[in-house]
Amino acid sequence: MTGFTPFIEEFCAHYQYPASAVETFRGVFQKLSSEKDFGSAFDGLRDRYLGHRASLGDILEPLHALAKENGVREETLDFVFLLSLTEDLKIKYGFIGMPDGVYWRTMDDLRCKLLECIENRGVPGTFVTGWFDGFFRLARFGFGRFQYEVSRFHMAPGGEPLGAKLPSGRLIRDGDLFIGFHIPSSGIPLTDEVRFDSYKEAYRHLAPLFPDGKVLFGCGSWLLYPRMREFLPPHMNILKFQKDFHIVAWAEKEEFHDAWRLYGRAADKPPAELPRDTSFRRAYADWLLAGNKAGDGLGFFLFDGEKIIH
What we know:
Number of strands: 7
Structural class: alpha+beta
Number of domains: 2
Largest sheet: 7 strands, mixed
Order of helices and strands: HHHHHHHHHEEEHEHEHHEE
Mean pLDDT: 94
Low-confidence stretches: none
Number of helices: 13
Shape: globular
Distance between the termini: 52 Å
């Protein structure tokens, strides 16, 4: 049984996890060690995952059943399961020659998801466990502020491209390789320096995948909803981030499904009752209160190692 090892203790300390969360995780590890049936079942699921006989999605149903049987919150046992994989992942990073710094930046996403879970559900853990397959299967890496993974562009259902042509004339065709990236809730502002440092670091690792030396980056996110330009001040970093992209498609939604990312546990409240303690929260709440909708967007840009090319 993998217990609360010195590595896991160092891991939690590295990211300064809340002390109460660490004690909760430590208690679950102790329970796994002291209760044979619980620990054996947990180890069996862990062995299946490490042996590449299951994805995290495959593991969730039996893991959640195990949590219920043993009086542990699903979110907490999910997080303990992920913690039990962290040392093996670090060994794999060494095997493929990926720098330690990239490992620690990548694994910061556990901290982000831990804090999101505490904020939204009031319990230490995670409610997006399947998302972590990309990290533990070495398909997604954190380079600076953002996370990156190799992706393929696909046409819209009707066979028509999603307007995926950059102003430079570069056509993004069905099946084309691009680097998809994600914006973790790390709390680091999206300043010009932060964004470009990340693009440059990603470029150093990923440029060999693109024969012309221009990496194609793409992102689909609620932060790329172009109508934010109508209600956010132009100096905000979010709008500067949007301008990095040529947005090829966007849509408005009847429901603001990403509201929890902005408003936490208050996300289900009507617009008049949403928190207004930051300029972003206030502006979005006012936008919704006026009868407008939320949305998201899909954007791309080329990067030559120094500058963005649309």
